[in-house]
């Protein structure tokens, strides 16, 4: 979802070199898109991608990884990362990913967004193969593969609303229009807390690994959304 | 500010329910990690278990053969075959199967090459489709719905030796009993382990009788998905950490489930040779160590059973020695009886010829007709 009047974010331009942080973010976005590809989720709508990105960000500490962004503006319509959107579109122009189905969407609040569907191109896959040779990128990629696979395991309607029902995004103390800070200055990450709570609740004190907690969390979201339905 | 505990009675109840109901049925391997064949087969078996239960009352005699083929990027593969990706598994299990199904690591989204309602597709057609895809080396699982057979092709359709047939007619057994656990172990041995052509590879150098380095772990790894298939209501875990050690495989009742029975299974490999990368340099494995290993296994099985209050304890000995004589195991029967541990002996042959030459009674043996501890 590309805001039509987005000029506030300080993106890279043709004149300045890409900042290492932005490069890391772009690699992260490419990893996540490929993870969605491998989970059979592509072409993925921008709306779904931002929701998946939020869950991946929020759950990163469960894999002892730094989130690419530890805060997010709480929209009623769901998570939206303008920077991630910039990277998505930029990569499409670079020929790393494919964009299709571009259309306008008018939100209930009157904002007009461009939405589209994204998928990987062969060039993106080959580029990624080189990028994930770095150990840190490899760890991130492995985590994102699991997140996307777990996200893909949600029932269709749960995929729509899982992020909105996420323990952190749905924190009742954070009103719509406020910033959810789960890893920047504060530590209000109830999603990770929930993953940790499984250890005390599983029968026979069965040992859980990071992957087990992650999947349990997504199954919890699936149940939660089902309960709401 | 620190995070506060999650709250809300209804939310907590869902978290608790998830922990109780879903543990023990989670993926066995990482996406994109090692042992992708194990993860893939586990997911297919899990899916088929649900599918068969959903269709338990239906006449499956006309249902077509299905081939599940592992793929990393189903959309790319589907493009090659001119197929439309369909989201089949994550919706429900009510749809009929059939044709070639390109399955992701978690089977959540697939491309089905033939229409979902296809009624006939021959094996030759399936092979041709896989060849067209250039995917003969990918893990694959055939499913024959009419007689509930599966064929696992661990190394893909090109790896002829790795084809194995397995009947899943007894899936979803309600309770864990000595008979049902024995059936699991004997089927597992017969179809998955007994010869070098079986899917579970235990030989580093079969002519020299040198097993792989972690033979017990390999046996345990593939036993778990089959146990989950058979005892679908129970919690099946491997390497259960206990005060007295780690139970190789534990079959435990799920809280709130109507199923009964519980068991711990210890696994031991009897060897003629130690592992060595250079098989020619492998040292002999002393016979006394094999006997000592069985004795330890009996003690471990009994201790783990008592610690988790299981009803059954079994020690399964997989015999990879040159001379797979059951007497090594049966000679310790009285020790096992004292601890109420069921002792089982499963010879693993280094060739199909060796298996044929073995007397029928040597193929597998239960050293005791029944054992149970209420």
Structural class of chain A: alpha+beta
- Please tally the β strands of chain A and state the result: 6
Please state the average pLDDT score of chain B.
82
Number of β-strand runs of chain B: 15
Q: Classify the beta-strand content of chain B into a percent band.
A: 15-25%
| Number of separate helices of chain B | 11
* Percent helix range of chain B: 25-40%
Contiguous uncertain segments of 5+ residues of chain B: 1-5, 366-374
Shape of chain B from CA axes?
A: globular
Unreliable residue stretches of chain A? 2-8
What integer value in Å does the Rg of chain B equal?
22 Å
Topology:
The complex is a heterodimer of chains A (229) and B (374).
Chain A: E1 2-3, H1 20-38, E2 44-45, H2 46-59, E3 71-73, H3 82-93, E4 97-106, E5 112-120, H4 122-131, H5 135-152, H6 156-165, E6 179-181, H7 190-201, H8 210-228
Antiparallel strand pairs in A: 1-5, 2-5, 3-6, 4-5
Chain B: H1 9-22, H2 36-54, E1 66-70, H3 74-81, E2 85-86, E3 99-103, E4 110-112, H4 123-133, E5 140-144, E6 149-153, E7 163-167, H5 178-193, E8 203-205, E9 210-211, H6 215-230, E10 234-242, E11 245-253, E12 263-270, H7 287-308, E13 312-319, H8 327-330, H9 333-338, E14 342-347, H10 352-357, H11 360-363, E15 365-366
Parallel strand pairs in B: 1-3, 12-13, 13-14
Antiparallel strand pairs in B: 1-5, 2-4, 3-4, 5-6, 6-7, 8-9, 10-11, 11-12, 14-15
Question: What would you say this structure looks like, in words?
Answer:
- The complex is a heterodimer of chains A (229) and B (374).
- Chain A has 229 residues and is an alpha+beta fold.
- In chain A, 50% of the residues lie in helices and 13% in strands.
- Chain A is built from eight helices and six strands, in the order E-H-E-H-E-H-E-E-H-H-H-E-H-H.
- In chain A, the strands form two sheets. In chain A, strands 1, 2, 4 and 5 form a four-stranded antiparallel beta sheet that branches.
- In chain A, helix 1 (20-38) crosses helix 4 (122-131), helix 2 (46-59) crosses helix 6 (156-165) and helix 5 (135-152) packs parallel to helix 8.
- In chain B, a hairpin with a 4-residue loop joins strand 8 and strand 9 (210-211).
- The longest helix of chain B is centred in the last third of the chain and has 22 residues, at 287-308.
- The chains are: A alpha+beta (229), B alpha+beta (374).
- Chains A and B meet through helix 5, helix 7 and helix 8 of A and helix 1 and strand 10 of B.
């Amino acid at each position: 979802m590309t805001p039509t009047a987005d000029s506030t974010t300080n993106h890279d331009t043709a004149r300045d070199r890409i900042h290492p942080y932005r490069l890391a973010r772009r690699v992260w976005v490419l990893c996540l898109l490929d993870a969605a590809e491998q989970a059979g989720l592509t072409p993925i709508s921008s709306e779904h991608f931002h929701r998946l990105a939020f869950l991946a960000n929020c759950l990163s500490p469960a894999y002892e990884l730094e989130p690419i962004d530890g805060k997010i503006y709480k929209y009623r319509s769901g998570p939206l990362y303008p920077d991630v959107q910039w990277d998505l579109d930029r990569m499409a122009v670079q020929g790393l990913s494919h964009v299709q189905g571009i259309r306008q969407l008018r939100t209930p609040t009157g904002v007009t967004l461009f939405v589209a569907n994204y998928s990987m191109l062969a060039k993106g896959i080959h580029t990624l193969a080189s990028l994930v040779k770095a150990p840190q990128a490899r760890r991130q990629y492995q985590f994102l593969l699991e997140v996307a696979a777990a996200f893909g395991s949600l029932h269709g309607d749960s995929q729509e609303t899982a992020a909105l029902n996420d323990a952190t995004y749905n924190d009742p103390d954070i009103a719509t229009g406020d910033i959810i800070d789960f890893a920047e200055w504060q530590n209000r990450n109830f999603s990770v807390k929930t993953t940790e709570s499984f250890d005390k609740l599983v029968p026979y004190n069965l040992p859980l690994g990071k992957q087990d907690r992650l999947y349990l969390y997504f199954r919890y979201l699936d149940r939660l959304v089902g309960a709401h339905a | 500010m620190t995070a506060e505990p999650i709250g809300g009675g209804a939310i907590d109840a869902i978290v608790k329910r998830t922990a109780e109901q879903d543990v023990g049925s989670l993926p066995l391997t990482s996406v994109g990690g090692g042992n992708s064949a194990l993860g893939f087969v586990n997911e297919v078996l899990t899916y088929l278990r649900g599918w068969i239960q959903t269709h338990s009352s239906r006449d499956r005699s006309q249902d077509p053969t299905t081939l599940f083929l592992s793929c990393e990027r189903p959309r790319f593969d589907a493009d090659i075959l001119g197929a439309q990706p369909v989201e089949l598994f994550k919706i429900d299990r009510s749809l009929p199967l059939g044709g070639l199904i390109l399955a992701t690591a978690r089977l959540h989204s697939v491309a089905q090459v033939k229409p979902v309602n296809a009624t006939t597709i021959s094996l030759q057609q399936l092979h041709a489709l896989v060849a067209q895809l250039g995917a003969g080396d990918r893990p694959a699982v055939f499913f024959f719905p009419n007689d509930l057979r599966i064929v696992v092709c661990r190394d893909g359709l090109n790896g002829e030796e790795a084809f194995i047939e397995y009947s899943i007619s007894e899936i979803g057994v309600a309770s864990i009993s000595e008979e049902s656990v024995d059936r699991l172990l004997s089927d597992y041995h017969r179809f998955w382990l007994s010869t070098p052509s079986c899917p579970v590879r235990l030989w580093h150098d079969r002519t020299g009788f040198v097993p792989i380095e972690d033979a017990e772990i390999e046996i345990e790894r593939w036993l778990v998905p089959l146990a989950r298939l058979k005892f679908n209501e129970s919690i099946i875990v491997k390497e259960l950490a206990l005060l007295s050690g780690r139970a190789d495989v534990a079959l435990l009742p799920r809280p709130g489930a109507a199923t009964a029975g519980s068991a711990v299974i210890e696994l031991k490999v009897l060897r003629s040779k130690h592992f060595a990368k250079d098989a020619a340099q492998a040292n002999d494995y002393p016979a006394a160590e094999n006997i000592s290993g069985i004795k330890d296994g009996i003690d471990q099985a009994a201790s783990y059973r008592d610690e988790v209050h299981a009803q059954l304890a079994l020690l399964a000995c997989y015999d990879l020695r040159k001379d797979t004589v059951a007497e090594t195991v049966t000679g310790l029967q009285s020790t096992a009886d004292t601890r109420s541990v069921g002792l089982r002996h499963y010879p693993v042959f280094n060739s199909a010829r060796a298996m044929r030459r073995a007397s029928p009674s040597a193929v597998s043996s239960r050293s005791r007709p029944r054992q149970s501890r209420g």
